[in-house]
DNA sequence: CTGTTAGCGCTTTCAG
DNA sequence: CTGAAAGCGCTAACAG
């Protein structure tokens, strides 16, 4: 049969409460006793029953990862974050639950409430773009559910972030250094922080180089391959074409390269193309895509870790920053 | 404070056990009583506490989705299945937990045991390629954990399946009808059922057309874009090139189209290309990819539904079949 | 058809 | 530093 805490207690000749203390890393247990209890647990392969722990301790050991499933449904980005969150949860014997939530829908808050009431997560991890949805954050605070965010726009709160603006700026500076002047930018989905930061970095670099912005070269996209193709066609139809395109993510950049093929433009000879994210695709393309590496999996892991620190009473939690790195590959070259 | 079952019982003037009966859709409650109890639940916005239910009822209301994270890490396929599983679980107030498991690793079974002991899932959903890993199935049966599979190779067990061989055959017949004779096939990862079925369908159609197999035209791939590019380069280097390529999935087909661009081959004028899966990419490509629609999300949902039927005591569960459908788009055309 | 009693496996509270 | 008692919110087993 199942080994219970009581069985361990008997085997170690201590009270159940002492075993509980050891299990939860509490103080007030002598080193010697602790060792004996741990040995007994090990020997009997004891596994605490999560429901019993939750019920008695009034916590669930569950972390919910919330995401918006409205746009860009098949991105690998979320899958990578999920992977990282899962790793962190596993490491601390928490379980992870994933919850798609439609930011645009009217019953967003009702669904959030249902999630909390039905599953009692001890905390939640927020992913873009819902990291900055004010009603959500408000409700989480009201209901006393701690949260950590991946790439939040605000500076309060805990989680993880990369300096995307600096990365975008560095990318455009790379193009400038290659002699490009007519540099186009494909913007991502309008209300995403990522879109804003990357656009801001583009503008910053262009301005620093003394280049006035040409509105025709800044095109709205939607983070998808298809929107990259469409935007590129627009750009290529211009009387004065850009010599380089900086897309706000790799999917759109891939679309640009595809459209370049349609127009008979050789990348990078006739056109330099670069993206952002360093998805697996970037390396597989030919020519391989110059892009910014964003460690999504690691960011998911770190965000979850900050949350877990809070949940485990290990301090207040931080907004940690991860470094970016330019991956200069073969899709960008000196202007002819 | 929290509304408990006892509070509902008091409000409806019945015993706690009666409320429990209503909550669990059990028999032996008069319609009138049931109605009164439901009304009270509704009025008080009662939410049963999952841990209490689990502890007392010896079940967790958790379904674990198991997948192999070793190959093709960033496929949207798993994300879609996950989405479907989640929908089914939600509909029956179960929660879903996702568990990556490395099939090749030595501690596979130990990890499975840990999962079961630590989280007590009421059942699991298996995804390719671990749907047919005998030691896994054996252990699940030993530990009495019901499971349902997405695209299992065997005919026993419950879950969901598409007739992939028939679909592959239909795809090749489409190419034959366009006049193609030198038709190449890119195989997926060797030990996957999908690879086998699709290859078998290819062979079946070719044989039925009286065409002997040319080994040079059947190339091993790995379900990835990169492997599609590599395989296509091999094919294009042949003295006698194929006029059509049937890749075992869309990612590889996209790689083939990419490589065709490198070689100056126009699709579909110089080369017909088709894939399998109907990923979002297929529609976005230019020319749009001819492929087989595989309703992954729906398959995830149906597999989970079969499992839930078993868990909820609604019969034994079936191996249901979903229909395939050819998506004939612009990447295939009559041979010149 | 309905209710009573006991208890799931753990943690809390409080006393030593 | 350690332990005894009570109980988390629900359901099983039985009794009516």
Characterization of this structure:
2 copies of one chain form a homodimer. Chain A is of the alpha/beta class. The first copy, chain A, has 3 domains: 5-57, lambda repressor-like DNA-binding domains (434 Repressor (Amino-terminal Domain)), CATH 1.10.260.40; 62-162 and 296-324, Response regulator (Rossmann fold, 3-Layer(aba) Sandwich), CATH 3.40.50; 164-294, 3-Layer(aba) Sandwich (Rossmann fold). Chain A is 45% helix and 15% strand. The first copy, chain A, is built from 13 helices and 12 strands. Chain A has a 6-stranded parallel β-sheet with strand order 2-1-3-4-5-11, sandwiched between helices. Chain A has a 4-stranded parallel β-sheet with strand order 7-6-8-9, sandwiched between helices. Chain A has a two-stranded antiparallel ribbon with strand order 10-12. In chain A, helix 11 links the parallel strand 8 (244-247) and strand 9. In chain A, helix 1 (5-12) packs across helix 2, helix 8 packs parallel to helix 9 (193-208) and helix 10 (225-236) crosses helix 11. The first copy, chain A, is elongated, with a radius of gyration of 25 Å. The model of chain A has no long low-confidence stretch (mean pLDDT 93). The A-B interface holds A 47, 49-52, 54-55, 60, 69, 73-74, 76, 78-80, 82-83, 86, 93, 95-98, 100, 117-120, 224-226, 229, 255, 258-259, 261-262, 279-281, 283-286 and B 47, 49-52, 54-55, 60, 69, 73-74, 76, 78-80, 82-83, 86, 93, 95-98, 100, 117-120, 224-226, 229, 255, 258-259, 261-262, 279-281, 283-286. Chain A binds a DNA duplex (16 and 16 nucleotides) through helix 2 and helix 4.
């Amino acid at each position: 049969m199942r080994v219970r805490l009581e069985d361990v207690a008997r085997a170690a000749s201590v009270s159940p409460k002492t075993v509980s203390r050891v299990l939860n890393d509490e103080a007030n247990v002598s080193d010697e006793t602790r060792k004996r209890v741990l040995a007994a647990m090990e020997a009997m392969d004891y596994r605490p029953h999560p429901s019993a722990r939750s019920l008695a301790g009034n916590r669930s050991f569950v972390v919910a990862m919330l995401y918006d499933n409205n746009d860009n449904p098949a991105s690998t980005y979320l899958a990578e974050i999920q992977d990282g969150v899962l790793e962190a949860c596993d490491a601390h014997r928490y379980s992870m639950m994933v919850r798609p939530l439609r930011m645009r829908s009217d019953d967003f808050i009702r669904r959030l409430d249902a999630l909390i009431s039905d599953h009692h997560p001890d905390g939640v991890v927020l992913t873009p773009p819902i990291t900055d949805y004010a009603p959500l954050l408000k409700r989480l605070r009201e209901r006393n559910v701690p949260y950590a965010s991946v790439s939040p726009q605000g500076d309060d709160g805990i989680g993880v972030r990369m300096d995307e603006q600096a990365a975008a700026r560095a990318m455009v500076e790379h193009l400038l250094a290659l002699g490009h002047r007519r540099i186009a930018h494909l913007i991502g989905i309008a209300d995403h922080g990522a879109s804003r930061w990357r656009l801001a970095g583009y503008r910053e670099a262009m301005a620093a180089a003394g280049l006035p912005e040409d509105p025709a070269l800044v095109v709205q996209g939607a983070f998808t391959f298809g929107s990259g193709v469409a935007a590129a066609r627009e750009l290529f139809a211009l009387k004065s074409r850009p010599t380089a395109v900086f897309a706000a993510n790799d999917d759109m950049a891939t679309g640009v390269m595809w459209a370049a093929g349609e127009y008979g433009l050789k990348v990078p000879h006739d056109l330099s193309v670069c993206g952002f994210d360093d998805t697996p695709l970037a390396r597989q393309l030919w020519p391989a895509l110059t892009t910014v590496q964003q460690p999504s999996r690691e960011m998911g892991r770190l965000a979850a870790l900050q949350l877990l620190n809070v949940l485990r009473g290990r301090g207040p939690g931080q907004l940690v920053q991860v470094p970016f790195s330019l991956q200069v590959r073969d899709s960008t070259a000196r202007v002819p």
